[in-house]
Design goal:
single chain; 152 residues; alpha/beta; Maf protein; 5-stranded mixed beta sheet; 6 helices; 5 strands; 42% helix; 22% strand
């Protein structure tokens, strides 16, 4: 399914960059598994720590106000990486993928479209038993969000 997203981006000359936290770069890694993805993937960053989110340009005020595990931080991550790389789309992913936490379970995902200055967000609930399975769920949610907003 991700191949159709990448092919769409290539066909339409739309560039993308990612700033991932809890997924550890899985989305960018899977994009690079697809032939010719180098024509559209401008940059990716794994900012697993709060310190490096801030060093990459995510607003400390946003993190302090909403926490690092928030929709607002995902939006900041998506905008920041798009601007940093000069890409048409920026993707921000942050959250907690550990299934035994009582609160804040899940991931916030944002696609920022710099072409029209719009953000699209979703929350991915944690339902799987392993971190790897939950990371894949976030990627699936990215595909669904992309298809319902950018590709529509």
């Amino acid at each position: 399914m991700l191949e159709s997203v990448v092919k769409y981006l290539i066909k339409n000359h739309i560039s993308i960059s990612t700033m991932e936290s809890c997924t550890g770069g899985l989305l960018a890694s899977l994009i690079t598994d697809i032939s010719d993805a180098s024509t559209i993937l401008k940059f990716s960053a794994v900012t697993y720590s709060t310190e490096y989110k801030i060093k990459m340009g995510v607003s400390k005020d946003v993190i302090d106000k909403y926490t690092v595990y928030s929709k607002e931080t995902a939006i900041e991550m998506a905008r920041t990486i798009s601007r940093f790389a000069g890409s048409d789309l920026g993707v921000g992913i942050t959250g907690r993928l550990v299934s035994n936490l009582a609160e804040d379970k899940g991931a916030y995902l944002c696609i920022y479209d710099a072409r029209c200055d719009k953000v699209y967000t979703t929350f991915v609930s944690i339902t799987k038993s392993t971190r790897k399975e939950n990371k894949l769920e976030v990627v699936k949610s990215f595909i669904e969000l992309f298809n319902s907003t950018i590709k529509k």
